[in-house]
Every structure is written in structure tokens, then in C-alpha cells.
Amino acid sequence: MTWDLGYTRSDTAVITSENGNLDLYVLEEESLTELARSFRRLTGRSYLPPRWAFGYIQSRWGYASETEVRTVAAEHRKRGIPLDGVCLDIDYMEDFRNFTWRKDAFPDLKHFSEDMKRDHIRLIPIIDAGIRQEEGYEPYDSGKAGGFFCKKEDGSDFTAAVWPGVCCFPDFLREDARRWFGDLYRPLLEAGIEGFWNDMNEPALFYTEKQVDEAFRRAGEVRSGSVDYEAMWRLKDAFNSLPNNMDDYRSFRHEIGGRPVRHDLVHNLYGAGMTRAAADGFRRIRPGERLLLFSRSSFIGAHRNGGIWQGDNFSWWSHLKMAVQMLPGLNLCGFLYTGCDLGGFGCNVTEDLLERFLQLGVFTPLMRNHSALHTREQEIYRFSIWETMRDTVSVRYALLPYLYSEFMKAALRDEMLFRPLAFDYPADRRAVHTQDQLMLGGDCMIAPVYEQNAAGRYVYLPEDMLLIRFRSAKDYDLVPLEKGDHWIDLALGEFPLFVKKNRAVPLCPGGESSELLDDTAFTLLGQIEKEGVLELYRDDGRTTSPDLESGLTRITLVPDNSLTRKVKV
Ligand code: MIG
Predict the structure, then answer these.
(1) Could you tell me if the CB of 199 is within 6 A of ligand 1?
(2) Rounded distance from Cα 345 to ligand 1 centre (Å)
């Protein structure tokens, strides 16, 4: 499909589909908020992660052994940097084969994962879409026997190279193939794993044999011809077009209702199907449990089955801003459990950039520091300002019961967690054009710093609000501000949260893991001039059938002259 949104003509949107098929749904509502809700009512309730998934997660492409992961965890614990999870990237597998783990590096995964859980840290392994084509490797053998892989036109299995070498691709658009794939997670679940990330499920293809042959043929033409500038581009293109090649995507088929369907026509459903395969598998294998699942590729509808992370960003200031701006779009689609690779995935981060990324991450449901192989090591403890970063993460833990509550209320009421100001203040032209601040839940607004060397920023307040300028969970300023534009001083270790009048944000005492938080004693921060209510949702953090009403505690906010007060609930 092509979406030409004001590209050809700035006042016209043109959507064209290659095969002429287009189902268009038109939703009409009185407001953007209502529109978002009715879209979600149509597409289904958002995925609910377990509560521990709101903790800080450390990740890096390259962690290759139990010893290494234990060291990462210990460095956090030693310094009091809160931590709830460590991701295992492809390096934990045997030769990148899905559903295996290196016996030399992880001799007893079950024992290891249980040990980590005793320390309130979960392991979160990655699973890729491609299955290595290799007889004797169980997932390949069973997939082959079931005929579950995508096929070429001649009926043979489509293959392409990805990390494990030549791979076959499960046909996630088929019920029986999804069921087979979902069951492959069982050994990892039995080893105590409670969370996964699904990757490479666009599916990403490094190359096919056919395209390599073609590239060499084209390169050969250049070699024998006269050397000119066009030949140079042809040579370059021959090899640059190997990965994720459109001809490859056109060359394989899915089976839908017994009929073959070309992949490129259903491309975006592939990652969504993988997410569904995993989620359905979890429902069968662990009924009544919420497991963590987030995916790189997905689609409308699969927000019922898992979250997504924002993909391979870079350690760039512009990508920090972009991460802010991606949140409402994802929320609109129902993907509430989301966040970006904090610090940036590609390139080498600077310490100020990581700190500013973390300050955004304090508020995003997925708060994960992730970086690519060969980039600068990006764990908080690698940096001279690690104490500042630790204090920033500590704010997340003080806010965690509240953020979890806001998330659950949004999910169970089919609302967005992050909204552009335009949704809440449609008549306020200044608010409508504000693109670097977001409403968060029912009471708050965020306005992250996303520029290097900035000692603060301008913030537009669409109504009177209380500024909380955080330095740590215990150290913050409270400044009541009036509606309008304000310059807010925000030195490197400082970041703001704005709270509407007559609302309050509860801070718990904090802790090193989500499981160790006391969610019965809070400090309420807010400017209360007339009576208000704080609705705090709590549950066991794992049940799959949460009940909003019975989980809600209503805390009455009584007018007073103080900006803080203690409550027991
Ligand atoms: O080709 O597994 O987006 O998060 O670290 C790269 C290695 C494959 C892409 C993911 C990234 C992950 C990386 N993967």
C-alpha cells in the first residue's frame, strides 16, 4: 500500500493498494478522545503485562553467558540502581537457533533464572522469526513435518539467510502453524522464563540465494563494461538491495483459508501473527498468568497480545524527541505497553544523552536500556554520573504504583495513556500545536528535555499545574504555575512532571525492585484547592482477569495549604 499523506499535494491524502483491494472503516465521533476509544472498542482491549514489567530492564546485544548477566545484575544491586529484568539477546542461543540456549554458557538455565528471581530480577530472552533449516533440529523437523513454513510458488519452502544461516519462515497466518510455534516456547517457560521479546518478524531477510546470484550477475556486467559513474551506482545497488528485498517479499506465499496469498500483500500481518502465536501459546501453557511479551513488528489487533518496542533507534538527540512523538500514535493503535531503546540502540551514547533518555523512560511503561553490539557500553554503572542516573531510575520506582494504576485504568477503559495536548484541549490553539509535551493518564503532563546542553526548556501549560522538578524519589521541588508559557530550569539531573490542580500524584517510598515496593503508604503531591479524588488501581500484578472496580481505591483529596501529605491506603 502507498500512503501519500500530503506528499504529492499538501491538502490531499491518497491511499492506494497494489491489488486494488481496500477495506476502509470510517469512524465518526464528537472528539478525538471519543474517536480513539471507539477505535479501540472495534479492535479490542490492550494487552496487559505483568506488574514487574514496569520495572527497569537492562539489555544489550552481546550478553553471552550466565556469568556476564550475573555481573550486570550485581553491578546494579551493588550500587542501588533498581532493576527488574535483564534481556538476553541472540547471543544466549546455540548458533542463533530459536528455542535453544548455549549449554556451555548457560549450563542450568532453570537454576539460573530461579536464582535471579529470588533477587527479584527476571530474564527476558529474545526469539527471532526465522527457523534454521537443519535436519535434526527439533523446531525445523516438526515445522517441516507439519508443512508450517511459507512456500515459494513451486511449493517448496521459501528460505532466506538471517542470523542462524539459511532459515525457513513459519506461516504465522495459519492457525495450526501458530499453535505449533506457540508450543515451542514451552521449554523456556519450564525453565522459569516469564517474559520474551520477539524480533526480526517483519520478517527481516539478510539475503536469498536468488538475489545473491543476481547481484553477482549485475556486478559482473559492470566489471566487463566500461567504467563510468552509472556503473558505480549499479555495482553499489546490486549489493545494497540484498536485505529486505521487495522481489523476495513477492516470491513467497502464505496459506489463508487453504488458498495461497503472496507475502507482500499481507506483509504487516506477519509480526502480528508471531505475537499472536506466542501469546496464544502462553495462554495454553500458563493459563491465568500474565507474561511479558513485546515485539518489533506488529499490527492493529496484535495490541491484544503484546506490546512493542520502538525499534532500532540511534544514540541521537533527534531520536529522543522522536521517541516522545511516537508514543501517542502507538497508544492510538492500542499499543500501550511500549518504550524506546533508552540511550539509543545504534551509535555511541554520551552520558548526558543517556540521562535525558532515562528521564523520558521514567514515564514509559517499557523502561529498557538497550544497545547494539560494538557500541559504547551503556549500562548505567559505566558512567561517571551513574548516581544521577540511579536517582532518576529511583523516581520511576517511587511512581511505579501510580504509573501501573494509570496504565491499567487506560487499558481497561480503552483509553490512551499518552495523548497529544490537542486531545484534551481541542479549543486551545496553543495546546493543539504543542508537539513536544504529552498528557499522561488522567492527571499529568510530561515535557522532556531532548536537546543537548539545555539547562531547561519552555513548557506550555494549558491550565494551572503543579511542577514537580525531580532530582530523585526523595529530592524534588514543588512549584505551582499558572496556565501559559514558562521557562523551566532543568539542570542535567532534573526533570519535570506537571500535575493538574486538585489532582495528586502518589509517591511510594521506592525500592530496588517492583516486588519490594510498599504500595500502602504514599506521599501525595498536589495542589488541592477544592475536594478531589485520586483513583488508585491495585491488583496482584499477574491476574489475566483484572476487575477495575474492585481494584480501585478512592482517596479523597481534601483542600489544604500544603503541597504534600501522607496517606495510608
Ligand atoms: O539484526 O538481536 O531490533 O534490538 O539487539 C539485528 C540483535 C537483530 C535487531 C533488534 C535489536 C537486537 C538485534 N536485532
Answers:
(1) yes
(2) 9
Of the candidates 165, 175, 93, the one whose C-alpha atom is nearest the C-alpha of residue 131 is: 165
Burial of 363 per CB tally in 10 Å (0-12, 13-18, 19+): buried
Answer whether 128 contacts ligand 1 (Cβ < 6 A).
Answer: no
Residues 25-61: tens digit of each pLDDT: 899 999 999 999 999 999 999 999 999 999 999 999 9
**Percent of the chain at pLDDT exceeding 90:** 94
Residue 327 scores a pLDDT above 80: yes
DSSP string computed for 445-466: EE----STT-SEEEEEESS-EE
Q: Contact, 253 vs 151, CB < 8 A?
A: yes
Q: Is the CB of 379 under 6 A from ligand 1?
A: no
Q: Is the CB of 312 under 6 A from ligand 1?
A: yes
Cα–Cα distance measured from residue 267 to residue 262, given in angstroms and rounded to the nearest whole number: 9
529 lines ligand 1 (CB under 6 A): no
Rounded Cα–Cα distance for residues 184 and 147 (Å):
16
Q: What is the mean pLDDT of residues 483-503?
A: 98
Q: What is the pLDDT of residues 231-271, one digit of tens each?
A: 888 888 989 999 999 999 999 999 999 999 999 999 999 99
Q: Give pLDDT, residue 46.
A: 98
CB 244 within 8 A of CB 202: yes
| CA 201 – CA 275 distance, rounded (Å) | 9
Q: How far apart are CA 8 and CA 533, in angstroms?
A: 50
State which ligand 1 atom lies nearest to the alpha carbon of 372: 5
Q: Write phi, then psi, for 5 (nearest 5 degrees).
A: -100, 90
- Ligand 1 centroid, distance to 89 Cα (angstroms): 8
* Cβ-contact 133, 157 below 8 angstroms: yes
- pLDDT over threshold 90, residue 377: yes
Instruction: Return the best residue to mutate from 126, 202, 294, 368 for the ligand 1 pocket (most ligand atoms within 8 A of CB).
Output: 126
Q: What is the pLDDT of residues 160-204, one digit of tens each?
A: 999 999 999 999 999 999 999 999 999 999 999 999 999 999 999
Type of residue numbered 306:
G
- Beta strand spans in 17-132 (E): 56-58, 85-88, 122-128, 131-132
Helical axes 269-285 vs 175-183, angle rounded to 10°: 60
CA distance 553 to 337: 23
Atom number, ligand 1, closest to the C-alpha of residue 163:
1
Angle between helix axes 386-412 and 66-79 (nearest 10 degrees) is 100
C-beta separation of 133 from 167 below 8 A: yes
